[in-house]
Description:
The chain is α+β, with helices and mostly antiparallel strands. It folds into two domains: about 5-240, Glutamine Phosphoribosylpyrophosphate, subunit 1, domain 1 (4-Layer Sandwich), CATH 3.60.20; about 245-315, no CATH class. Helices cover about 30% and strands about 30% of the residues. It is built from ten helices and 15 strands. The protein has helices at about 15-25, 50-60, 105-115, 125-140, 145-150, 245-250, 255-265, 265-280, 290-295, 310-315, and strands at about 5-10, 30-40, 40-45, 65-70, 85-90, 95-105, 155-165, 170-175, 180-185, 190, 205, 210-215, 220-225, 230-235, 240. The chain has an eight-stranded antiparallel β-sheet with strand order 3-2-4-1-10-9-11-15, with helices on one face. A seven-stranded antiparallel β-sheet has the order 5-6-7-8-12-13-14. Helix 1 packs antiparallel against helix 2 (about 50-60) and helix 4 (about 125-140) crosses helix 5. It is globular and about 55 Å long. The two termini are about 25 Å apart. The model has no long low-confidence stretch (mean pLDDT about 90). The structure holds glutamic acid. Glutamic acid (GLU) binds near residues 73 and 126. Glutamic acid (GLU) binds near residues 1, 2, 75 and 101.
Amino acid sequence: MCGIVGAVARNNVVPILLEGLSRLEYRGYDSAGIVVANEELQRLRTTERVSELGRLVEIRKTQGFTGIAHTRWATHGAPSERNAHPHFSGQDKKIAVVHNGIIENHEVIRKRLEQKGFEFLSDTDTEVIAHLISFNLETTQNLLEAVCMTINELQGAYAIAVVEESRPDHIVVARNGAPLLLGVGNNGNYVASDASALIQVTKHMIYLEEGDVAELHSSGYRVLNRIGDASYKEVTRSVRESDLTRDSVELGPYTHFMQKEIFEQPIAVANTLEMVLNARSISPQLFGSEAEAIFKKNKGILILACGTSYHAGLVAKY
Ligand code: GLU
């Protein structure tokens, strides 16, 4: 699972998105991409580093008040430019999607959408999300509703962010089994898979919970949560002040990021707990959407690891 950053603001969001992506680089990735809504959806993708994406943005002079960006770690489809996110769907009502995670029932949905005439341009599981939202937009005309209808059909883990060409004043996001948080700022509102991607714009974070769907505008946001199988109701999520600082996500005095990670293990554990406790629950779903059902059937746990992970596994066994 890799990185998501999104922004809808009263100023050009491109520098914010690029800085956010570069703060997520330490997680590793094989490609990166960005979509900015400015009259039309302008997309740039690369299998090079985030700095190369920055160079492309400068050449094309890409800018706008709304955008989403992604670093991909391929699970379905080779690391290539055409598989890199964001993925598009639709012509009159064009949308773009970024996704972290895995859609387990993507093959079934893909077959159904192909029969309806949707053309797939990538090998990713993510592209089914884009086309399914497009398909649902034909029924509702409302992106938030179309996203709710879409995720009702998705199985697996996901954090997604969606923008639409015809209404560039908002972003719709959703999470299930993959982390996603909102950043509440003075000049706009933001979304990211990791708080470190947003600390350049705000310290005020909302940690989304499982099944949450949110709509962000430059001046506000609202969060819905799934009740039952298919309906949603508006919920209140508290805004927390993050303890992260700019220094904490920069290389600082260390020679490389692995060395920094080793020395920062105590604070990493504390931050992880902060996120979990802010979500007010340590639920089995932290391990994926189907974890709860699977855990009930467990008779034992096998920890398979080598090297350093083997030693971590021994601690877990203990
Ligand atoms: N499964 C998606 C893909 O292969 C997303 C991977 C990720 O989380 O970066 O494109």
